[in-house]
Design a protein that fits this description.
Belongs to the D-isomer specific 2-hydroxyacid dehydrogenase family. Pfam families: 2-Hacid_dh, 2-Hacid_dh_C. Residues 8-320 form the D-isomer specific 2-hydroxyacid dehydrogenase catalytic domain. This is D-glycerate dehydrogenase. The chain is of the alpha/beta class and 320 residues long. It is built from 12 helices and 12 strands. The strands form 2 sheets. It has a 7-stranded parallel sheet with strand order 8-7-6-9-10-11-12, with helices on both faces.
Length: 320
C-alpha cells in the first residue's frame, strides 16, 4: 500500500465513531446497509480498493476468494470469528486476513453468564408470566429452577473468552472443568481441571458452555454428546451454531435430558429454527454477545487499526 490514504470498502455499518474515523483517515466507501457477498463483489468491480472491512454477512469461500480482484491486499474482519471465510485460500492468494481478538472477551463472557443464569433460573418463563399480568400464585413446588451456585461448569475452549467465563463462574463458587486442544499453564488454569478428551469430561458437567474459536469446524455436540451429560444439565452456547446438532439439542430439551439451554448462536441466522421459540426452557438472544456500545466501537476501531497498520507498512496487528 502507498503513502496516500488507502482506498477501502467498508462493507458493513459501523458505529458512529468508527464511521467518522473511516471517513477521516481513509479514502473510504461507506455503505448504508450491510453488504452481502454478491454486493461486495459488485462494489469491488466498480471501485478497486486495497482493503475491505467485512462482517459475517460476507461469506468468502474458496471460489469467492479466487474471484477477488488482484489489487486487493487486505480483508479486515470486524469480529473474532472468521468461519464465514476461507482464510487459508485467502492467504494462499497472498491476501492478509485480520480479525479483532481481545476486544469482545468481557462482553461475550458477560452474555454467556447471563444465558447461564437465565437458563438455570427459568428467566424466559418468569418474564412471560409477568408480561401476561401474573395474577396467579405459585407454591413451593412450582416453577422451580436450578441453583447455579456451586455447580460444576464444563468449558469447551479455554481461550480468552473461556477463561473470562471461568472467572465469572468462580464468583458463584463453581467447580471449573475444561476441555481444550492443549492444557493451559497453571497460572491460567487457576485451579480448573483439564480433560484432554471431551467425552470424558461431559458426564461431570452439570452446566456446559461452548467457547471455541470461530475457525473451528464440524459438529461437536451431537446426540451422543448430549446423552453423556448428567440428566438435567444446562447447556450454553455463545460460540457458533455450527458446533451443535440442533435436532439433537431439541430432542434433549424436549425429553428432559437437558433442564434448559441458553443460546446466542444458531446454525442458520437470522432464520433460526423456530422450534426453539416454542420451547419454554430455552433462554436465547439473537447473536448479541458483543452488542455493547463500548465493544462494538472497539471491534470496528480494531479492524481499522489493522488496515492503517498495513497501509503504513508495519504489517497486520491481528493476522489470522
Amino acid at each position: 500500500m502507498n503513502a496516500s490514504p488507502p482506498r477501502i470498502l467498508v462493507a458493513r455499518r459501523l458505529t458512529p465513531a468508527a464511521t467518522e474515523r473511516a471517513r477521516r483517515d481513509f479514502d473510504a466507501q461507506i455503505v448504508e446497509h450491510d453488504l452481502d457477498t454478491a454486493e461486495v463483489m459488485d462494489a469491488l468491480r466498480q471501485r478497486p480498493v486495497e482493503a475491505i472491512l467485512i462482517g459475517p454477512k460476507v461469506r468468502l469461500d474458496a471460489a469467492a476468494v479466487a474471484a477477488l480482484p488482484d489489487g486487493l491486499k487486505l480483508i479486515a474482519n470486524s469480529s473474532v470469528g472468521y468461519d464465514h471465510m476461507d482464510a487459508e485460500a485467502a492467504r494462499a492468494r497472498g491476501l492478509i486476513v485480520t480479525n479483532t481478538p481481545d476486544v469482545l472477551t468481557d462482553c461475550t463472557a458477560d452474555l454467556a453468564f447471563l444465558l447461564l443464569l437465565g437458563a438455570c433460573r427459568r428467566a424466559h418463563e418468569y418474564e412471560a408470566i409477568m408480561r401476561k399480568g401474573w395474577r396467579q400464585g405459585f407454591g413451593m413446588p412450582d416453577m422451580l429452577g436450578v441453583r447455579p451456585s456451586g455447580k460444576t461448569l464444563g468449558i469447551v475452549g479455554m481461550g480468552r473468552i473461556g477463561r473470562a467465563m471461568a472467572e465469572r463462574a468462580r464468583g458463584f463458587g463453581m467447580r471449573i472443568l475444561y476441555h481444550n486442544r492443549s492444557r493451559l499453564p497453571a497460572d491460567l488454569e487457576q485451579g480448573a481441571e483439564y480433560f484432554a478428551d471431551l467425552h470424558s469430561m461431559l458426564p461431570h458437567c452439570q452446566i456446559l458452555s461452548l467457547h471455541l474459536p470461530g475457525g473451528q469446524a464440524g459438529t461437536l455436540m451431537d446426540a451422543a454428546a448430549f446423552a453423556a451429560l448428567p440428566k438435567g444439565a444446562v447447556f450454553v452456547n455463545t460460540a457458533r451454531g455450527s458446533l451443535v446438532d440442533e435436532d439433537a439439542l431439541i430432542e434433549a430439551l424436549t425429553h428432559g435430558q437437558l433442564f434448559a439451554a441458553g443460546l446466542d448462536v444458531f446454525r442458520k441466522e437470522p432464520d433460526y429454527d423456530m422450534r426453539f421459540a416454542a420451547l419454554p426452557n430455552v433462554f436465547m438472544a439473537p447473536h448479541m454477545a458483543s452488542a455493547t456500545r463500548e465493544t462494538r466501537d472497539a471491534m470496528a476501531m480494531r479492524a481499522l487499526d489493522n488496515i492503517a497498520a498495513v497501509a503504513a507498512g508495519r504489517g497486520p496487528i491481528d493476522p489470522v
